[in-house]
Design a protein that fits this description.
Length: about 190
């Protein structure tokens, strides 16, 4: 039987809910004085729904948005606990529908990289509902002797086409300079 939304949770239940190790939750408790779980006679922690919402906001800021602990502490001081708690996963919000088992997704077809010259030529007045141009990012191979790991990108790509195009326009001069440096290094 599932617990009520307003029930207290143990640290292992919170860790599972946030997909975060328990030692990280204890560390956050030492860094953020606003996290105050109720402790039982044996020292066992019991988290209230408000504590869990705060932990969800802290996780969002640290792991998803890339803020530092000091930056998150400053945000808590300036904006308050309610603001930070509203940023992340909420325990008190209505539960999301449980997804049905779906077949494994097929990997996307490889996409040819878009040269910098073509990136500069992207139409800025294209309709918002048109599909964005395909592009790929070539990640460097890991050094020899390291265990194989899946490549990952740091940061988030803007979902809005106009923001994506604006960001591409900002990055285009840097890419051109990098290509010039690479050509000089190759002797070409």
């Amino acid at each position: 039987m599932a617990k009520a939304k307003d029930a207290f949770r143990t640290i292992s239940e919170v860790a599972e809910w946030l997909d975060t190790p328990t030692h990280v939750l204890r560390f956050w408790e030492s860094k953020f004085s606003q996290i105050k779980p109720v402790k039982g006679a044996g020292g066992r922690r019991y988290y209230r729904p408000a504590d869990m919402d705060l932990l969800g906001g802290i996780k969002q800021l640290l792991h998803e948005d890339g803020l530092t602990i000091k930056g998150t502490q400053k945000l808590l001081r300036e904006q308050g606990v309610k603001h930070v708690a509203s940023l992340g996963q909420s325990m008190t919000a209505a539960p999301a529908p449980t997804p049905q088992a779906e077949p494994a997704p097929t990997p996307p077809a490889p996409v040819a990289p878009v040269p910098v010259a073509q990136q500069d030529a992207l139409p800025l007045d294209a309709p918002a509902d048109s599909t964005p141009p395909a592009f790929s990012i070539d990640l460097p191979a890991p050094p020899q002797g390291l265990p194989a790991a899946a490549p990952r990108l740091i940061g988030h790509a803007p979902a809005d086409r106009s923001r994506l195009q604006a960001r591409a326009a900002q990055i285009a001069p840097l890419l051109a300079r990098l290509e010039t440096v690479q050509a000089r290094m190759r002797g070409g």
